């Protein structure tokens, strides 16, 4: 009976540690829509624990198949193009005035029905630390 309780307690403790996905310090989304209404979304941001490589703990998954035939968007880290993913989180460093500095991402969009519209949540960039942010 004591052994069963011990196994159950250990199982619960281990399961709790293995199932959580890390929440990044900053995350935002880009919403892509083509001329006929097809949509796709990609997510990017930064965190002190992220790397320039693939970070599965932040939900980054390398996409190794060709682009979708109608509309698809993918991101790569600016300093490397080793992989493409729907989610990219780069390492951040402390900057001036309590703000953090993160590197950017490259956005690749494959679209048959052009033009393509890209939007984002403006409120994500209202913080004074993002005054110098640009999306081009």
Q: What does this molecule look like?
A:
- This protein is mainly beta and 136 residues long.
- Helices cover 12% and strands 34% of the residues.
- It has one helix and seven strands.
- The chain has one helix at 2-18, and strands at 26-33, 39-47, 71-77, 87-94, 100-102, 105-111, 117-120.
- The strands form two sheets. It has a five-stranded mixed beta sheet, with no helix packed on it.
- The longest helix is centred in the first third of the chain and has 17 residues, at 2-18.
- The protein is globular and about 45 Å long.
- The model is unreliable at 6-17 (pLDDT under 50).
- Care to count the β-strands? 7
Q: Report the total helices.
A: 1
Largest sheet: 5 strands, mixed
Structural class: mainly beta
Question: Whole-Å distance between the termini?
Answer: 63 Å
Low-confidence stretches: 6-17
What's the arrangement of secondary structure elements?
Layout: H1 2-18, E1 26-33, E2 39-47, E3 71-77, E4 87-94, E5 100-102, E6 105-111, E7 117-120
Parallel strand pairs: 2-4
Antiparallel strand pairs: 1-2, 1-7, 3-6, 4-5
